[in-house]
């Protein structure tokens, strides 16, 4: 039985109350939620069945995992009380339990109340790619209608207000951004209309409006921050500077007093007449460090004052009112465009019988509420009151990522029809990092405040962390106690929010292992004027990555000790224990992979570069482009250069120069006819034959079927699987099949249309991440974004790129929005081309900037809390002396840092550096600077590294690659050798030229089969009429792949029943490992027969079991090709493949390969013979990698339902 803390028990056992649980990172909140569910449904006195609970999870995978946990727990209770009908009923009802994402619940709601919505109940949910393309077409429709409209003055004003140098891209972008921004609100168009009306100021003018009040408040905060900054150092400045500092404080106080009286114009006059006096010369006896510090602070204040003056004191209130009046027509034009876009986009979706994710939430609101557009009032509907009685309790996981629409939906369903408290919410506002998905952390904070004093409610804090070593927690607490407060981070990092040690880490006695937190700062040189900013950033990133690679190698080489999760014993660190977290991997992933592999570090970098930029996907798309239209030079050359045809750059150049045709494909055809290099001709002929064959086939089959033919007939799918990160490459290829099938369902069925669809996705920059199949046991260093790491944990975490600036580009758009304030825009006069911010945009931009900074703080918290044992922070910093001075002057040995400094930070290291500067271990940061020290209990190692040591020098370049200086030697007029003989030279090993450097096991098998069988005649398959075909029927090969996928994920140690297999395949479908069609195609009886067989029993009892093991090894060309011409050849070939399964028992090693092929009656022996060579090579691979001989080899035929010993 689990041992729960007092706070966890309170959360599990609280009944008949609204409960909100603020659960810190690693505090076991999911386990608490599951235990609460189990407690409710197994307590017969409550009368609550599992399907009377609504449990909202953040992801489908989380919902599936929760159901699995509940099923296991209820099954255990049934074992103890097998006669309980109530428990058996819970197990039976679990399949229809409302444990799902908010979108899944909304879908269910819409299916039940579609009549109220006037939609087709069979409407499907369109994917993001399809929606992006529909939106693009809808935007074209909007502009077409608006330009044709007669009285379109407002639209023209709007179009002129958007800075668009060429075309209408920015205009479209503004309409789309506006539409998407307001989707997080329950009544989007109503809100936008009201926001536009706020620009029409009443008789009180700007000063009496929300914008004016916030404007003055922001001015006050800025000036007060300057006063505090100067006051903090005034008593420590050299005497000769004292008058200057005193006068500055006096003038700033005058400005502050004017604003306190709400007299902006008076403050405006003072600000615009003020000038900083010049500091006098430093006296000889004045301390140099004190003088430098005073000068640095005053320069900092000057910079802040200059920016404040530009942002807030650029116009009088009267002039700002005029600017806002000028913008009203443009804002009305914006509203018209968004309204028209909503209408057209909605109609387009209706035509395709589709809805998007935003529709799900808004339709749910329409079902659950009655809304009066005139008054803006809404009330719970009769349907909602009926549904309330269906739910005993409503539980929300990851509540911090909710938005106002989702909160309204769940509120409408709560109360059990009797206004009873029945909400249970669990989350951690410090981990709310999904602003870009419209998550609103203020919903969580508002709920805590509203429930804190309610006797029918309970607020519980889970602060004990069961994930991390104590020093990791102490280090995190040390930083966040200083930087996170209500003013700077939405929440005060007090004793309720701090992390407390709850894990059990025994002490490691290894001398090479230190668990202190590291801060490694790489000092960078200032870029030259000629250095491009992106190039400079990349150079900085490379230096940082080189340092990280060297640090990883040292951890591995020193045998750094980590606690093994399974055994509970210390072991040497593996690459798979390490993660490098970055805010964004977009510009780092490629460089990281290259640098790490140069250091022989196995690495997986999940970049943000886009799915269609993945090499394996880009190649297959090139195949499709060539099949559709061969007169495209780049796709043709990409395909020829690939592994499939292996045409080198030199050979491509020969083909290009062979004839003077306009298109490369014409040169290819001409070379096939008249070329003089037989090797090149053979490659080109193979290419041409393949393309011609697929061209003939393409009109008669689906794009998915065409893709599968390319994968199997070229062997590329198998080849990709044997490459590094082969599983991910294969998953990306499988995802392309799924995309083709999804596109076909939306009417994109022809090859031309599918290629056009892909090009539109790329043009519209639709986010299409790669497939996610990396197993947690893969021994590779992972490089991932902080967002992707949420919910994960790693023994050693590098948080890197901390010197990169925050992205606050959101506030630079022409039109910006805030749900609680309204809309802000620039004043742009198309006649004078004068552009400036309005007062509304100024205050909204500042509010958004503050919220972005708050979220960056939470992102940093998520990053640091991923570490279990050791935390290593790295960054590159220019001008380390100036930076150290800034950190130290803003450091706080006790309490919070000053609000103005925290809010003005533009990168993570400015927070961390200033926080750590006061630590007892930070002597290297404080060198020569005198500030107070903190005696915090965390242990740090702080290192400043010379960045020039991380540059590649000529000494690192191999001799053959050294740069050549000086002039090239002159060519002799008369050659000293016989030119004719040289040009007539014939390569003596020409017969070995066709040997590939690398070959897949599938190719070897095919070569072997050719010796056993004559090639069968390929018959032309004609298209069958549609009415004779089954819809979306999987091919035999696809069914076989589905069975292999299930076998790959099965736990061979477990003896599954058919029902358990059914649940397992359902789980695989829910987490998107297999599709619904593939799930249906899997014959569970055959898998059950395999599990229950004698070999299955042996596997369960084996000492070790290995599945899906990739290999690559060298064998002789003769072994690979079986060609007598190669018997005397010394060349080696790398053969690669994946072994299905092998296991060890006592002193035996047993190889097992499973096949799904159809076996004609009487041809069993031929079937086994054709796989003999494959199993022989698998055996050799196992023997070479393990050093143990394979004693037994088996094939299991799923078709025949039997094992065959080879």
Write the layout of secondary structure elements.
Elements: H1 6-13, E1 18-23, H2 29-41, E2 53-57, H3 60-80, H4 85-93, E3 98-101, H5 102-112, H6 114-117, E4 124-125, H7 128-148, H8 153-161, H9 169-181, H10 188-197, H11 210-234, H12 242-260, H13 264-273, H14 288-312, H15 317-351, E5 354-355, H16 357-368, E6 369-371, E7 378-380, H17 382-388, E8 393-396, H18 404-413, E9 423-427, H19 441-452, E10 457-462, E11 464-465, H20 470-483, H21 486-489, E12 500-501, E13 517-524, H22 533-557, E14 561-563, E15 570-572, E16 578-582, H23 589-598, E17 603-605, H24 615-628, H25 633-641, H26 649-658, H27 664-674, H28 678-697, H29 703-714, H30 716-722, H31 726-745, H32 751-763, E18 781-785, H33 786-789, E19 794-799, E20 815-818, E21 822-829, E22 834-837, H34 839-864, E23 867-878, H35 880-889, H36 899-904, H37 908-916, H38 923-926, E24 940-946, H39 979-983, E25 998-1000, H40 1001-1012, H41 1036-1049, H42 1058-1070, H43 1076-1081, H44 1084-1092, H45 1094-1100, E26 1104-1116, H46 1117-1121, E27 1132-1145, E28 1148-1155, H47 1164-1170, H48 1172-1186, E29 1192-1197, E30 1202-1205
Parallel strand pairs: 1-9, 1-10, 2-3, 2-8, 4-5, 8-9, 11-12, 13-23, 13-24, 16-18, 16-19, 17-18, 19-23, 25-27, 28-29
Antiparallel strand pairs: 6-7, 14-15, 20-21, 21-22, 26-27, 27-28, 29-30
Helix pairs in contact: 1-2, 2-3, 3-4, 5-16, 7-15, 8-15, 9-15, 10-15, 11-12, 11-14, 11-34, 12-13, 16-18, 20-37, 22-23, 24-25, 24-28, 26-27, 27-28, 29-31, 30-31, 35-37
């Amino acid at each position: 039985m689990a041992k729960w803390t007092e706070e966890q028990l309170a959360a599990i056992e609280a009944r008949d109350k609204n409960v909100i649980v603020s659960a810190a990172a690693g505090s076991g909140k999911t386990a608490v939620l599951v235990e609460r569910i189990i407690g409710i449904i197994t307590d017969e006195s409550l009368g609550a069945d599992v399907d009377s609970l609504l449990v909202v999870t953040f992801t489908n995978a989380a919902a599936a995992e929760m159901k699995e946990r509940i099923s296991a727990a209820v099954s255990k209770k049934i074992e103890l009380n097998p006669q309980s009908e109530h428990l058996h009923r819970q197990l039976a009802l679990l399949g229809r339990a409302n444990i799902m994402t908010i979108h899944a619940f909304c879908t269910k709601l819409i299916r039940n109340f579609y009549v109220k919505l006037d939609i087709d109940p069979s409407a499907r949910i369109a994917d993001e790619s399809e929606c992006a393309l529909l939106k693009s077409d809808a935007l074209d429709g909007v502009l077409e209608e608006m330009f044709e409209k007669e009285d379109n003055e407002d639209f023209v004003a709007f179009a002129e207000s958007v800075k668009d140098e060429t075309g209408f891209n920015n205009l479209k972008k503004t309409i789309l951004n506006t539409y998407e921004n307001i989707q997080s609100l329950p009544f989007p168009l109503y809100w936008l209309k009201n926001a536009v009306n706020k620009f029409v100021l009443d008789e009180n003018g700007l000063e009496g409006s929300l914008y004016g009040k916030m404007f003055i408040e922001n001015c006050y905060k800025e000036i007060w921050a300057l006063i505090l900054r100067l006051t903090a150092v005034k008593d420590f400045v050299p005497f000769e500077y004292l008058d200057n500092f005193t006068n500055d404080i006096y003038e700033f106080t005058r400005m502050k007093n004017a604003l306190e009286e709400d007299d902006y114009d008076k403050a405006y006059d003072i600000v615009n007449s003020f000038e900083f006096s010049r500091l006098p010369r430093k006296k000889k006896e004045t301390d140099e460090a004190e003088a430098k510090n005073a000068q640095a602070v005053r320069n900092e204040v000057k910079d802040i004052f200059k920016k404040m003056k530009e942002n807030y004191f650029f116009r009088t209130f009267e002039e700002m009112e005029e600017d806002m009046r000028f913008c009203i027509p443009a804002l009305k034009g914006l509203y018209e465009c968004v309204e028209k876009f909503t209408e057209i986009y909605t109609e387009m979706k209706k035509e395709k019988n589709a809805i998007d994710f935003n529709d799900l939430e808004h339709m749910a609101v329409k079902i659950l509420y009655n809304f009066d557009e005139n008054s803006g009032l809404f009330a719970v509907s009769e349907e909602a009151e009926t549904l309330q009685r269906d739910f005993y309790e409503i539980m929300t996981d990851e509540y911090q990522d909710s938005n106002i629409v989702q909160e309204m939906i769940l509120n409408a369903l709560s109360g059990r029809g009797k206004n009873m408290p029945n909400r249970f919410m669990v989350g951690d506002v410090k981990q709310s990092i999904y602003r870009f998905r419209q998550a609103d952390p203020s919903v969580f904070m508002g709920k805590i405040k509203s429930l804190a004093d309610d006797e029918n409610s309970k607020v519980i804090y889970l602060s004990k962390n069961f994930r991390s070593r104590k020093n990791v927690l102490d280090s995190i607490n040390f930083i966040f106690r200083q930087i996170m407060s209500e003013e700077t981070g939405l929440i005060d990092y007090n004793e309720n929010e701090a992390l407390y040690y709850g894990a059990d880490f025994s002490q490691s006695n290894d001398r090479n292992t230190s668990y202190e937190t590291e801060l490694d700062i790489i000092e960078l040189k200032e870029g030259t004027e000629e250095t491009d900013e992106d190039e400079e950033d990349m150079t900085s990133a490379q230096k940082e990555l080189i340092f990280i690679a060297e640090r990883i190698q040292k951890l591995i080489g020193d045998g750094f000790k980590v606690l093994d999760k399974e055994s509970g014993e210390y072991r040497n660190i593996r690459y798979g224990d390490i993660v490098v977290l970055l805010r964004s991997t977009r510009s780092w992933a490629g460089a990281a992979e290259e640098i790490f592999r140069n250091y022989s570090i196995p690495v997986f970098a999940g970049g943000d570069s886009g799915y269609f930029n993945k090499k394996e996907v880009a190649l297959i798309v090139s195949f499709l482009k060539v099949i559709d239209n061969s007169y495209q030079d780049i796709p043709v050359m990409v395909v020829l250069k690939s592994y499939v045809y292996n045409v080198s750059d030199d050979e491509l150049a020969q083909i290009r120069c062979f004839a003077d045709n306009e298109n490369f494909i014409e040169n290819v055809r001409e070379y096939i006819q008249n070329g003089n290099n037989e090797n090149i001709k053979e490659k080109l002929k193979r290419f041409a034959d393949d393309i011609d064959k697929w061209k003939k086939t393409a009109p008669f089959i689906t794009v998915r079927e065409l893709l599968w033919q390319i994968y199997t007939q070229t062997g590329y799918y198998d080849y990709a699987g044997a490459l590094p990160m082969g599983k991910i490459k294969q998953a990306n290829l499988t995802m392309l099949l799924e995309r083709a099938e999804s596109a076909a369902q939306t009417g994109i069925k022809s090859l031309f249309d599918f290629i056009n669809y892909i090009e539109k996705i790329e043009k519209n920059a639709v986010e299409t991440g790669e497939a996610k199949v990396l197993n947690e046991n893969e021994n590779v260093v992972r490089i991932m974004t902080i967002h992707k790491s949420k919910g994960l944990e790693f023994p050693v975490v590098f948080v890197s790129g901390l010197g990169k600036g925050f992205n606050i580009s959101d506030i630079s758009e022409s039109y910006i929005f805030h749900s609680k304030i309204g809309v802000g825009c620039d004043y742009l006069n198309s006649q004078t081309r004068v552009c400036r911010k309005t007062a509304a945009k100024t205050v909204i931009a500042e509010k958004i900037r503050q919220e972005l900074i708050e979220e960056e703080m939470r992102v940093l918290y998520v990053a640091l809390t991923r570490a279990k044992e050791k935390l290593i922070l790295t960054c590159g910093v220019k001008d380390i002396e100036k930076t150290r001075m800034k950190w130290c002057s803003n450091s706080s040995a006790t309490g919070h840092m000053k609000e103005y400094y925290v809010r003005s930070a533009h990168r993570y290291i400015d927070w961390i550096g200033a926080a750590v500067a006061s630590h007892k271990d930070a002597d290297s940061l404080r060198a020569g600077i005198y500030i107070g020290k903190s005696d915090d209990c965390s242990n740090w190692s702080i290192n400043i590294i010379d960045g020039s040591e991380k540059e590649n020098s000529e000494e690192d370049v191999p001799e053959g690659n050294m740069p050549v200086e000086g002039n090239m030697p002159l060519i002799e007029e008369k050659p000293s050798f016989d030119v004719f003989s040289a040009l007539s030279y014939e390569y003596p090993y020409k017969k070995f030229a066709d040997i590939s450097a690398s070959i897949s096991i599938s190719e070897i098998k095919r070569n072997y089969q050719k010796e056993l069988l004559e090639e069968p005649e390929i018959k032309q398959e004609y298209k069958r009429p549609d009415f004779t075909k089954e819809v979306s029927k999987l091919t035999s090969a696809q069914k076989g792949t589905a069975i292999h996928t299930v076998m790959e994920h099965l736990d061979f140690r477990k003896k599954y029943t058919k029902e358990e297999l059914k649940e397992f395949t359902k789980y695989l479908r829910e987490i998107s490992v297999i599709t619904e069609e593939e799930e249906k195609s899997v014959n569970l009886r055959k898998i059950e027969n395999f599990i229950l067989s004698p070999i299955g029993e042996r596997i369960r009892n084996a000492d070790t079991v290995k599945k899906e093991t990739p290999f690559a090894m060298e064998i002789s060309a003769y072994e690979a090709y079986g060609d007598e011409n190669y018997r005397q050849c010394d060349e080696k070939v790398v053969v690669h493949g994946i072994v299905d399964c092998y296991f060890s028992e006592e002193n035996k090693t047993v190889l097992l390969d499973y096949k799904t092929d159809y076996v004609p009656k009487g041809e069993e022996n031929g079937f086994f013979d054709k796989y003999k060579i494959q199993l022989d090579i698998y055996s050799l691979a196992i023997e070479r990698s393990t050093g143990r001989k394979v004693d037994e080899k088996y094939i299991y035929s799923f078709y025949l339902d039997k094992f065959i010993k080879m």
